[in-house]
Design brief:
heterodimer; A: 568 residues; Rossmann fold; B: 120 residues; alpha+beta; Glutaredoxin; 4 helices; disordered N terminus
Chain lengths: 568, 120
């Protein structure tokens, strides 16, 4: 906007933190400082608890003393109720951090005669605030005045005066009101308290109840306008802020092993840390076993793994995984592995999500396995469950936790590659386990359908579960298609036999050649010998001839000599 | 407003209920203990006091005591006696305790409320 004044920080509405986990996130800081807030809802929604927590946490966590004016419950009852949350009220009162004043109005004890005002209430409140130096005030529930006093005109004008009075003194006030028909409150309190209105709701959907909170109005501030689920447990109220605030989470390049070396090789090293993996398959394909392998590998590295199971109990899982060679109890004992088993129909989806958030925040795992995510559908509608899972995935990504979601595909679905939850587009890696029937038996195959950000193998592998563990083997691609199981073994044997035959053939030929060579050499030897013999013969003959010649000459000489001698 | 009371002393056993109290009342020499809670000198409190005084003079001659408590000066008393609206008239004696809130402009109703029969 051109020409707009620059907003100074001092002009911005100051907010007071309530200390209620999650609520301060939704409102961007808490309740408006020095102004009244209306908390309304039906019976049993948790309004009084909200208001009381606001006061008690203010005193304990933020050092702001508070006054509680209670019109319905007595001070003793409130002390007991809050003690169950773990807060020591008596201590707070003694240390002047908390002041509880019970206002008792009984219709038949009061008679109205002439003009009056509610100055007595103001005086009491003023006195209480002064005594402890309060900054926070709770009026619970001021509508009781309407039941006790009949002069509505006086009452309403005094209420208006009261809220102005509180604002003047800079008191951050929480007022509770009962939900009315068609209006936020029965007595129309929202007329006077219009700075901030919080609506609590307790809905039952298909036998499952969910608590929701909505900030209907917040003057002077942006606020999340959605309904946020919350739960009430022994620590008070926890609100679940939906983490749809942007998708700017950091990513890691580090790889996490899946526990099976062949699978890691197929993925080029393993899953990315902080990514989400979906493993889908029909019944009995070994999905939980893969999940357990991942848990085992995580714990071996010394990191923590959280296993949410919606079907099996912890002892069951440990026993079953023991049969394939995984020892998980040592990790459980060392607090590296934690199981959380619940039936999905025990609470609503929101409650599941809130609980998972809580447990993850407490345990701080680096890997979370959810087995199976498809069963959360039974706790809500399809849209709701998709929604919930998307939020869970977002949460895991934000926390840089590697998520491993196991999903059961129904055998009758048109294609195993369309998961009903629509989760497949949300996850980074998708592994599919499929049963294939051939030659009278069923074998399992594993595919890596997609894996974002890494070069993954597109080869299908046979998935074997043995007592020594899980093995991934290469399938045999034969003329008749993929051969698995015993057919593969058979084929491998045949091939082996064939190779053996070829080898033998080769050997035989080699031997034959050797023989021939030897034979040839022998022949050459014989020829050579013959030649040598002839050569010798010739030499002998030549020598003989020489000798003969010599002899003949000798004879001739001898003859000649002998002849001369005789002639004399 | 200054406290104008015939007697400022409260009987020692004022908080206890007992048959003695009732007997004294029937004897006719009973003390009516009335307490008027106000917050400073506002028109309503002045009206209330005036009306109260008038009613007491007419119907309770010399049998009553009015104690005026100014809550702006003693705020802690408001919580003890469960006072919300002002002015409030509390009949402490005779028992049972009765309350009326307002400036007491409807005298007849005050009489009925205080359980006083009109003087014959």
């Amino acid at each position: 906007m051109r020409g707009a004044k620059k907003i100074h920080l001092g002009d911005v509405l100051k907010k007071i933190p309530t200390g209620i986990p999650g609520f301060d996130d939704i409102t961007g800081g808490g309740l408006p400082a020095g102004r009244p807030t209306l908390v309304c809802g039906g019976a049993g929604c948790g309004k009084s608890l909200f208001a009381t927590e606001f006061l008690v946490r203010g005193a304990v966590q933020y050092g702001e003393p508070g006054v509680l004016m209670t019109f319905e419950e007595t001070a003793g009852d409130i002390k007991k109720n809050v003690a169950s949350l773990g807060f020591n009220i008596a201590n707070l009162i003694a240390r002047k951090k908390l002041f509880i004043d019970h206002v008792h109005i009984e219709r038949n004890e009061i008679e109205e005669n002439g003009e009056y005002d509610l100055e007595g209430l103001f005086i009491r409140l003023d006195h209480a605030i002064k005594v402890i130096g309060a900054k926070r005030v709770v009026l619970d529930t001021i509508e009781t005045l309407f039941a006790g006093l009949s002069n509505q005109a006086i009452l309403r004008s005094e209420l208006r005066r009261l809220f102005g009075w509180l604002k003047e003194r800079g008191m951050t006030t929480v007022i509770t009101g009962e939900r009315g028909e068609g209006a936020l409150t029965r007595q129309g309190l929202e007329e006077y308290v219009s700075d901030c209105v919080v609506l609590l709701d307790h809905r039952v959907n298909g036998q499952i109840s969910t608590r929701r909170l909505r900030v209907v109005k917040y003057r002077g501030s942006t606020h999340g306008t959605n309904e946020y689920p919350f739960l009430i447990d022994e620590a008070g109220i926890s609100v679940l802020p939906i983490t749809t605030a942007g998708m700017n989470y950091g990513v890691s390049r580090e790889r996490v092993s899946s526990g099976i070396t062949e699978l890691d090789k197929m993925l080029g090293g393993g899953f990315y840390r902080g990514s989400t993996v979906l493993l889908s398959g029909t019944s009995g394909t070994g999905k939980s076993s893969l999940g357990a392998y991942l848990a085992d590998a995580t714990c071996k590295r010394g990191e923590r793994c959280l296993y949410f199971s919606f079907e099996e109990a912890e002892a069951q899982i440990i026993r079953n995984m023991g049969s394939i060679g995984l020892r998980l109890e040592p990790y459980v004992r060392k607090n590296l592995l934690k199981f959380h088993s619940t039936r999905p129909t025990v609470h609503g989806l929101e409650m599941h999500l809130v609980l998972m958030h809580k447990i993850i925040e407490e345990f701080k795992p680096s890997v979370v396995v959810v087995d199976p995510v498809s069963s959360v559908q039974s706790a809500g509608t399809l849209d709701d469950s998709t929604n919930m899972l998307i939020r869970l995935v977002d949460f895991l990504r934000m926390k840089k936790i590697t998520g491993f979601l196991i999903s059961l595909s129904s055998a009758g679905s048109k294609s195993l590659e369309t998961t009903e939850e629509g989760l497949s587009s949300m996850v980074d890696t998708w592994l599919l386990l499929r049963n294939v029937e051939s030659g009278g038996e069923r074998n399992r195959l594993m595919y890596v359908l997609k894996s974002r950000g890494m070069a993954h193998s597109n080869q299908v592998r046979e998935f074997l579960i043995t007592s020594q563990g899980i093995k991934l083997m290469e399938v045999y691609l034969g003329a008749g298609g993929i051969l698995t199981g015993s057919a593969r073994v058979n084929q491998l044997n045949l091939e082996r036999a064939q190779t053996q035959n070829v080898k033998e053939e080769f050997k035989r030929k080699q031997l034959a050649l050797e023989h021939r060579r030897k034979a040839m050499e022998a022949q050459i030897e014989a020829l050579h010998a013959g030649f040598l013999a002839e050569q010798e013969e010739f030499a002998r003959m030549a020598a003989n001839e020489q000798w003969q010649k010599k002899q003949t000459e000798g004879y001739q000489q001898a003859m000649a000599r002998s002849r001369r001698i005789i002639r004399k | 407003m200054k406290t104008k009371a015939k007697t400022k002393k409260k009987p020692a056993a004022v908080k206890k209920r007992g048959p003695t109290r009732e007997k004294t009342a029937r004897k006719g020499g009973a003390e009516w203990m009335l307490r008027l809670y106000v917050a400073g000198q506002t028109p309503k409190s002045l009206t209330a006091f005036a009306n109260l005084k008038k009613m007491c003079e007419e119907h309770l001659a010399n049998r009553y005591s009015i104690e005026v408590i100014d809550l702006s000066k003693q705020p802690q008393l408001a919580s003890n006696d469960q006072i919300i609206a002002l002015p409030t008239l509390v009949r402490k004696l005779p028992e049972p305790i009765k309350r009326i809130i307002g400036d007491l402009s409807n005298i007849d109703r005050v009489l009925v409320g205080m359980d006083l029969k009109p003087i014959k």
